[in-house]
Predict the 3D structure of the following.
Amino acid sequence: MLPSNQEISMEVAKESLKVLNKHMLKQSDEIYIFGAYLSEKLPLKISPLGLYLFVESNFRDLQLGMDSLTRQPIDNALVKKPREFYDSLRTKIPKIVYAVCPGGFGEDVEYLYKQRSMNIQGNKDLEFFMKRD
Protein backbone atom coordinates (compact mmCIF):
# COMPACT_ATOMS: atom_id res chain seq x y z
CA MET A 1 0.00 0.00 0.00
CA LEU A 2 1.44 3.36 -1.00
CA PRO A 3 1.25 6.21 1.51
CA SER A 4 -1.47 8.83 1.19
CA ASN A 5 -0.54 12.13 -0.40
CA GLN A 6 -3.27 13.95 1.53
CA GLU A 7 -2.06 16.77 3.74
CA ILE A 8 -3.36 17.00 7.29
CA SER A 9 -3.21 19.78 9.85
CA MET A 10 -0.14 19.73 12.05
CA GLU A 11 -1.45 22.18 14.68
CA VAL A 12 -1.98 19.48 17.33
CA ALA A 13 1.23 17.68 16.35
CA LYS A 14 3.25 20.90 16.72
CA GLU A 15 1.94 21.40 20.25
CA SER A 16 2.47 17.72 21.11
CA LEU A 17 6.07 17.80 19.86
CA LYS A 18 6.81 20.66 22.25
CA VAL A 19 5.91 18.38 25.17
CA LEU A 20 6.89 15.05 23.63
CA ASN A 21 7.94 13.78 27.06
CA LYS A 22 4.23 13.66 27.96
CA HIS A 23 3.39 11.57 24.90
CA MET A 24 6.45 9.29 24.84
CA LEU A 25 7.61 8.32 28.29
CA LYS A 26 11.09 7.14 29.24
CA GLN A 27 12.87 8.26 26.06
CA SER A 28 16.25 9.90 25.73
CA ASP A 29 16.59 13.66 26.09
CA GLU A 30 17.69 13.79 22.46
CA ILE A 31 14.28 12.59 21.32
CA TYR A 32 12.57 15.33 23.33
CA ILE A 33 15.01 17.95 22.06
CA PHE A 34 14.42 16.81 18.48
CA GLY A 35 10.65 16.96 18.99
CA ALA A 36 10.87 20.53 20.28
CA TYR A 37 13.14 21.46 17.37
CA LEU A 38 10.70 20.02 14.82
CA SER A 39 7.74 21.76 16.48
CA GLU A 40 9.31 25.13 15.72
CA LYS A 41 9.80 24.36 12.02
CA LEU A 42 6.89 22.07 11.12
CA PRO A 43 4.46 23.56 8.57
CA LEU A 44 0.78 23.83 9.47
CA LYS A 45 -0.23 21.21 6.85
CA ILE A 46 1.82 18.35 5.46
CA SER A 47 1.46 14.93 3.81
CA PRO A 48 3.24 11.77 5.01
CA LEU A 49 5.81 12.07 2.22
CA GLY A 50 6.17 15.77 2.96
CA LEU A 51 6.84 14.96 6.62
CA TYR A 52 9.39 12.31 5.68
CA LEU A 53 11.23 14.78 3.44
CA PHE A 54 10.93 17.52 6.06
CA VAL A 55 12.44 15.34 8.79
CA GLU A 56 15.25 14.11 6.54
CA SER A 57 16.06 17.67 5.51
CA ASN A 58 16.23 18.67 9.15
CA PHE A 59 18.57 15.78 9.96
CA ARG A 60 20.89 17.07 7.24
CA ASP A 61 20.62 20.64 8.53
CA LEU A 62 21.42 19.55 12.08
CA GLN A 63 24.38 17.49 10.93
CA LEU A 64 25.75 20.47 9.00
CA GLY A 65 24.79 22.97 11.70
CA MET A 66 23.04 25.29 9.25
CA ASP A 67 19.41 25.83 8.27
CA SER A 68 19.22 25.10 4.53
CA LEU A 69 16.36 27.57 4.02
CA THR A 70 17.64 30.57 5.97
CA ARG A 71 21.38 29.82 5.70
CA GLN A 72 21.61 30.68 9.39
CA PRO A 73 23.57 28.61 11.92
CA ILE A 74 21.47 26.31 14.09
CA ASP A 75 21.85 26.67 17.85
CA ASN A 76 20.76 23.29 19.20
CA ALA A 77 22.26 20.48 21.30
CA LEU A 78 21.78 18.08 18.36
CA VAL A 79 24.04 19.98 15.93
CA LYS A 80 27.07 18.35 14.27
CA LYS A 81 26.72 14.91 15.85
CA PRO A 82 28.18 11.82 14.17
CA ARG A 83 26.10 10.27 11.37
CA GLU A 84 25.38 7.26 13.60
CA PHE A 85 23.64 9.55 16.09
CA TYR A 86 21.16 10.71 13.44
CA ASP A 87 20.75 7.15 12.15
CA SER A 88 19.77 6.07 15.66
CA LEU A 89 17.39 8.99 16.10
CA ARG A 90 15.89 8.27 12.67
CA THR A 91 14.73 4.84 13.88
CA LYS A 92 12.48 6.61 16.40
CA ILE A 93 10.67 8.80 13.87
CA PRO A 94 7.73 6.44 13.26
CA LYS A 95 7.15 6.16 17.02
CA ILE A 96 7.27 9.93 17.38
CA VAL A 97 4.77 10.34 14.54
CA TYR A 98 2.44 7.74 16.05
CA ALA A 99 2.62 9.64 19.35
CA VAL A 100 1.64 13.02 17.89
CA CYS A 101 -0.36 12.30 14.69
CA PRO A 102 -3.45 10.28 13.74
CA GLY A 103 -2.86 6.53 13.27
CA GLY A 104 -3.24 6.35 9.49
CA PHE A 105 -0.74 9.15 9.06
CA GLY A 106 1.71 7.32 11.33
CA GLU A 107 1.31 4.14 9.30
CA ASP A 108 2.15 5.99 6.10
CA VAL A 109 5.27 7.58 7.61
CA GLU A 110 6.36 4.23 9.04
CA TYR A 111 5.97 2.68 5.56
CA LEU A 112 8.27 5.35 4.10
CA TYR A 113 10.93 4.73 6.74
CA LYS A 114 10.72 0.97 6.20
CA GLN A 115 11.21 1.51 2.47
CA ARG A 116 14.23 3.71 3.20
CA SER A 117 15.69 1.06 5.48
CA MET A 118 15.20 -1.68 2.89
CA ASN A 119 16.83 0.47 0.19
CA ILE A 120 19.82 1.18 2.39
CA GLN A 121 20.20 -2.50 3.28
CA GLY A 122 19.87 -3.42 -0.39
CA ASN A 123 22.63 -0.97 -1.26
CA LYS A 124 24.87 -2.42 1.47
CA ASP A 125 24.23 -5.94 0.17
CA LEU A 126 25.09 -4.80 -3.35
CA GLU A 127 28.31 -3.14 -2.15
CA PHE A 128 29.27 -6.34 -0.30
CA PHE A 129 28.83 -8.49 -3.43
CA MET A 130 30.67 -5.99 -5.62
CA LYS A 131 33.66 -6.00 -3.24
CA ARG A 132 33.87 -9.82 -3.35
CA ASP A 133 34.91 -9.90 -7.02
In short: The chain has one domain: 8-132. The beta strands are 8-9, 45-46. Residues 18 and 37 are 8 Å apart (CA to CA). The two ends are 37 Å apart (CA to CA).
